[in-house]
Amino acid sequence: MRYSTSGVADTPGRPFDLEVWRSTVARTVVPLEIEELGDVTFQGRLSRTVVEDVSLFEMVATPHMVRRTPDLIADDEPRFYKLSLQLAGSMVLEQDGRTAELRPGDLAIYDTHRPYTLAFPEANQAMVIMFPHELVDLPRDEVARVTATCFPSDAGLARVINPFFVELGRNMDQLAGPHATRLVHSGLDLLVTMLSQELHRRLGPVANPARSLAREVREYILDHLGDLDLTPASLARAHFISTRHLYTIFSAEGQTVSAWIRSRRLERIRRDLGDPLFADRPVSWVAGRWGLSDAAHFSRLFKAEFGESPTSYRERILGARRGRAAEIPQQSPPR
Fold first, then answer.
1. Is 124 in contact with 61 (CB distance < 8 Å)?
2. Most-buried pick from 2, 62, 260, 334 (CB within 10 A)?
3. Is a pLDDT exceeding 80 seen at residue 292?
4. DSSP secondary structure string, 180-198?
């Protein structure tokens, strides 16, 4: 697939000046320092689509510089990753001691909870997807190894995955229908697959046996989340290690094995509750599909994790999707 190297698409709506752009980005993305580059007066257009807790942005702007400084990062704020797909022009991303230069069709990931810099030296167009850390089935320290890494459109899995995101950006109207949740999560699953491949390429099984074992255990958990007997003891037996060693592996990553299993199960259940494919299935069936067969216990866990009952969540998400299916709301700049 070929991409434009200079043609920036014209998007509808009045362009934002720098002041409005700063306030809009701070309100809908995260607080950032933003400055013009060169002698060009800043102009930009921004559209946003929200699918549950995932935000998708299409951004078109003149040259500018973006900085996420330590002073702008609060310890208690939600933690997000951002996937940036360059559609026209170029971008230079810096984070975690690495620099990635993106050309049209390339993508990279970065973490809003750590400082980063984005430089757009020319007129540019990009799609940015912002999503919570919890939607990525990889430890944060491993994702930190591949931030500010360019995944070029003509190499490896990116030849398959990048075009998916390109087409998603060109067909944002498809995110107004009832199947938006499944579509977005399918894209994130593809991204995690690409990140996992890159981590395996860099680290390999020999570089750090303990880390390799931890990765193997996590993959086993994900493949067996629906098993009722998935416990630390069964995991240890399956990998011929002691439960004490299993606990040590996960404690090094800042989370117990039981907590990781629980969080992955709850995230899968939440995804299915918002999926029209399972709309006619009882909530208890969805929970049991992912290994939580005690309905009362599951309901307490879900509410503690997401702040509402599973039934209320399902009604809210599916109802909102049905309500938006006929029309995509247009966003206007703040007055």
1. yes
2. 62
3. yes
4. HHHHHHHHHHHHHHHHHHH
3-state secondary structure of 23: helix
Point out which residues pair with 117 in neighbouring strands: 67, 94
- 208-322 has which fold? Arc Repressor Mutant, subunit A (1.10.10)
Strand partners, 61: 44, 124
Q: Please name the amino acid found at residue 99.
A: T
What residue ranges do the domains of the chain occupy?
18-171, 208-322
* Of 158, 140, 132, residue with least CA distance to 51: 132
Domains 18-171 and 208-322 alike in fold: no
Summarize pLDDT for 239-266 with one digit per residue, the tens: 989 998 888 888 766 778 899 999 999 9
SS3 209: helix
Domain 18-171 belongs in CATH node 2.40.50.100 = no
What tokens appear for 300 in the block? 């307490």
| pTM (2 d.p.) | 0.81
For residue range 172-217, what is the model confidence (pLDDT) as tens digits?
877 876 678 888 889 999 999 999 889 888 776 555 677 778 888 8
DSSP-assigned letters across all residues of 276-329: GGGTTS-HHHHHHHTT---HHHHHHHHHHHHSS-HHHHHHHHHHHHHHHTT-PP
Residue type, 261: I
Q: Which of 267, 255, 190 is nearest to 217 (CA)?
A: 255
Using CA atoms, how far apart are residues 307 and 215, in angstroms rounded to an integer?
A: 30
Which pLDDT band holds residue 322 (cuts at 50, 70, 90)? low
